[in-house]
Amino acid sequence: MFKTTTYIERRKGLKESLKSGLVLLLGHEEAPMNYKDNPYHFRQDSTFLYYFGISNASLAGVIDIDNDKDIIFGDENSIDDIVFMGPLPTIKERAELCGVFDNRPYAELDTYVKNAINKKQHIHFIPLYRGESKIELMELTGIMPRDVDAKASIELLNAIIKQREYKTDEEIEQIEQAVDVTVDMHVAAMRVARPGMTEAEVAAEVHRVALAANGNLSFPIIATINGQVLHNHYHGNTIKEGDLFLIDAGYENEMGYAGDLSSTFPVSKTFTSQQKDIYNMTLDAHNASINALGVGIPFRNAHIAAAKVVAEGMKSLGLFKGIIDDIVETGAYAMFFQCGTGHMMGLDIHDMENYGEVYVGYDGKPKSTMFGYKSLRLAKPLQPGHVFTIEPGIYFIPELMDLWKGENRFKEFINYDKLQSYRTFGGIRNEEDLVMTKDGAKILGKKKPMTTEEVEAIR
Ligand code: GLY
Ligand code: MN
Q1: Are 262 and 282 spatial neighbours (Cβ–Cβ below 8 Å)?
Q2: Checking CA distances to 76, which of 15, 239, 275, 436 falls within 20 to 30 Å?
Q3: Ligand 1 mutation pick, 231, 339, 448, max ligand atoms within 8 A of CB
Q4: What is the pLDDT of residues 150-184, one digit of tens each?
């Protein structure tokens, strides 16, 4: 946990910005895999973690602004819990570490919330993404699970985003540590991968490094020779000479902060010249998007900069024709670059995504629904303290080629005949994590191999 004053200040800031009402923050329950006592790896809800810092199951936090009370509701471990899990710090002890000196049995939450409702206090809550939390909210407030998102407090979301989006120095230190371990995970994969191994064996090495660092994964590992499948979690293929291997994996440290990096390397010792050409194109797009970053400049500009480089590169290969600005504006570029250039990162790898991308990444303004642009999670102007990823990629997706060709879509821009020879090329993505400072964007963590020379040197 951070020092006690961090949590006190965060809750104080939230109270000052909301001014009235009761903020109800539900922590997570254990989530059973196949029976109650066999749960998934426990992960606390990030909002609860941000304001209370306690990573124990079955807790709820109340920030009662009208009555100036911070309360943690939760039951102390029974002797049965202690027999099976050993003596652990009590909820009272943990609550005190986050500056909460009022902790009560969980059963009292119901009466507390119902009294507040009777007194016409406004109950602020965030959109919920776990069934158990939705049922709990229904029992406490009568709000049906299907209505939770619509009835969530936009005022609360905006107030939380205004705090969480600006990472403090102590948070950046945590994120940087998570990124450092993430770099180790990627370098380990580059070192061990050999023709004849399975994707799963490489993924296991990535996971090993995360576990050995005393944390875990910040999201399920992508370790694949089919990098064109953007979120590919299948690890059953055997890797062979000539394949490209894409890793997208991140570390989550003990405080819950995330790293998120992607790398692409040849399964052979070196890239083929065609692989090198496309790889360098993704690096050019990467560097162009970093060069487009600045304080007060919309992140959308970084995406457009990357899209332009991809369009120019593909035009130089004869796969695109026409005017670059038109290829980018119409969305034709998304034949090769279907995802967004980056997203916020912090306690979540897609930081605060549960609050809604429009609030987190677009300042509440509507998002494009156009293929390609709709996958851009962050578009708003960046400010010092924003932590985000840069991850443009190039992907040859046979199904997309066939679909658009069949529809004659963008036939004025795309040379479909020539494109056929790239059907089995796959996909390439590199990703880095950055923080915006008053002096410009800075890459976080230790250096990850990026150039073809740096990657080949490890292979
Ligand atoms: N690294 C996975 C993602 O950004 O969606
Ligand atoms: Mn990412």
Answers
A1: no
A2: 15
A3: 231
A4: 999 999 999 999 999 999 999 999 999 999 999 99
